[in-house]
Amino acid sequence: MYYAYILRSTKHPSQTYVGYSSDLRSRLKKHNEGGCPHTAKHKPWNLEWYCAFPEKLQAIAFETYLKSHSGKAFANKRLLRPVGLRMAQP
């Protein structure tokens, strides 16, 4: 499986990052260890949303869409919680 995902910075909640990976757990770990130049300055990151795809090109295409102007609007309206709104812990 391949994953398109959205991360949100814990320290800077207005900062999000969109990516894709075949190993979501290790990719999130790499982001939080500072191993990615684009996300290092806003770590740590929380996984806000992800979707699994059977084909790599599908995940890449959806990642590309989420990075577009209309994709950002879609994500903000349908996929992400407003900044400051968190789910209650059980």
Task: Please summarize what this structure is.
The protein contains 3 helices and 3 strands, in the order ββαβαα.
Q: What is the SS-derived class?
A: alpha+beta
What is the CATH third-level topology name?
Answer: GIY-YIG endonuclease
Work out the helicity level: 25-40%
Strand numbers in spatial order across the main sheet = 2-1-3
**Radius of gyration over alpha carbons?**
13 Å
Number of helices: 3
Number of domains: 1
Order of helices and strands: EEHEHH
Structure description:
With 90 residues, the protein is an alpha+beta fold. It has one domain (2-79): 3-Layer(aba) Sandwich (GIY-YIG endonuclease). It is 36% helix and 26% strand. It is built from three helices and three strands, in the order ββαβαα. The protein has a three-stranded antiparallel beta sheet. The longest helix is centred in the C-terminal third of the chain and has 12 residues, at 56-67. The radius of gyration is 13 Å and the shape is globular. The mean pLDDT is 93.
Features:
GIY-YIG endonuclease, 26% strand, globular, 90 residues, three-stranded antiparallel beta sheet, alpha+beta
Please give the structural blueprint:
Blueprint: E1 2-9, E2 16-21, H1 24-32, E3 45-53, H2 56-67, H3 69-79
Antiparallel strand pairs: 1-2, 1-3
Helix pairs in contact: 2-3
